[in-house]
Amino acid sequence: MPNGAGEPISGGSGPTVGVLALQGAFEVHQQRLHRLGVRAPLIRTPRELDAVDALVLPGGESTTMSRLLGTSGLFDVLAARLADGMPVFGTCAGMILCATEVLDARPDQRGFELIDITVRRNGYGRQLDSFEADLDVQGLATPFHAVFIRAPLVERLGTGVEVLACHDGVPVLVRAGSCTVAAFHPELTDDVRLHELFVEHLSSTD
Ligand code: GLN
Predict the structure, then answer these.
(1) Active site annotation includes 187
(2) Which entry of 1, 8, 30, 175 is 20 to 30 Å from 41 by CA?
(3) How distant is the alpha carbon of residue 165 from its chain centre?
(4) Mean pLDDT of the 72-99 span
């Protein structure tokens, strides 16, 4: 059970879902997970990563995150955990970090190549730097209000990638195995249903 707006009471039997906290919109993800009664420590070091069963990669700036993943010593440890099947929810910049192919990437930017999609950074163009849309999401009874901020555009889906939501015919929420990625910021509305779906999916991929 959540402990008000603060941390959930520890000692429960549910999963611990870390939130990568090197840069970007990590705090609100933590609050959303706490609202669901999920332990959600902020992760900044390899040691902190040891304690988690799953991870949220937040929105922010993928080039900066990539650099900080290197300097913090997290990149290789995290890559190994992810290759080992640790579930991950990547949102916006987090989606970029999970994709097998990134167009308009900075040459030195690195990612985890976890889900076979091609994304174009800032692919919605300048006019649409930021927009909001109601999405029909597989598994949700009513639409989810999604906030897109300099979002990546999904330009190719590999085989076996499941589409959970589209916007104007373009996939914006997709999943393959234990990797779920959203082009938008699911933490920026009060609606915790996507975090809930992710947490529920954890037990089905155990
Ligand atoms: N455009 C950013 C990037 O390239 C992502 C934007 C976001 O996460 N809101 O990383």
Answers:
(1) yes
(2) 175
(3) 15
(4) 97
Residue bearing tokens 């598994």: 139
Virtual torsion, Cα 123, 124, 126, 128, nearest 10 deg? -160
Q: Quick one: pLDDT at residue 206?
A: 60
Domains of the chain, CATH where assigned: 17-204 (3.40.50.880)
**What's the gap in Å between 200 CA and the centre of ligand 1?**
26
Cα–Cα distance measured from residue 103 to residue 145, given in angstroms and rounded to the nearest whole number: 27
Sign (positive/negative) of CA torsion 61, 67, 71, 75? positive
Nearest CA among 182, 206, 176 for reference residue 195: 182
- pLDDT at position 205 is 62
Q: Which residue has the tokens 């959303």?
A: 32
Report, in angstroms and rounded to the nearest whole number, the Rg of the chain calculated over CA atoms. 16
Q: Which of 101, 121, 112 is nearest to 177 (CA)?
A: 112
29 is catalytic: no
Ligand 1 centroid to residue 121 C-alpha, Å: 7
- Tens of pLDDT, residues 152-163: 999 999 999 999
| pTM more than 0.85 | yes
